[in-house]
DUF4232 domain-containing protein (Streptomyces achromogenes), 236 residues
Amino acid sequence: MRHIRLIAATGTAVAALALTACDNGTGTEDEGAARPKATVAAAETNVSKSPESSAPAKDTAGGGTTDASPVARTEAPSTKPAASAGRKGQSTGRSVVLCNGTNTSVTAQLLSRPLNHMLLTVKNTGGKTCELPYYPVLRFDEMQWVPQADEGTQPQAVVSLAPGESGYAGVLLSAADGSGSGGMTAHKLTVGFQGMTPNSDGGPSATPALPAKGVYYDSTLKVTYWQKDLGAISGW
């Protein structure tokens, strides 16, 4: 019995010595001792995969280096204005269609009052709004001079005609008191149109019909500016 107790005591002492050795780092490591190494290895792996630590890749074409980092770069917003669409009529910023012989019908009507006057009517027969700048450029037969406009009839804005609308101009043919000179009778009238600048070409002209007996005019011949409202020149 005593011999059995001695062996048991000896086994207990050996076990205590084994535990003491483990606590001093000289014995066999348990599972807990391996955890710090695994943590360090994981940290090293994360550092090697970090975008900031990636080495620049060689630019084989230029011999230099190219930043291979996948980190998105933030660029300052561009202050350059977007290209604008092409436009006609740059001064107004919109497309301008001129009224002329291709998109209007023009009539010439002799008036009984005021005496020696004629009325020109231009109707927009096109599908777009058109504009009538300034005044008509008249030519009777083969006359070599251009009748002037009465500046007092200039409207506040360029006359604009929607499809189907009409514009007007008055024509003083001759002086009522006979003070004009070089009077003659014409059988053909050509109405010219101006562009957006004075005396520029506004496109094809029109040739409204005149009375069969013709129209008498003299050196006092003049015209009004184009009008949107016929009442603006009714007493001219």
Summary: Helices lie at 2-23, 35-49. Residues 2-23 form the longest helix (22 residues). The radius of gyration is 50 Å.
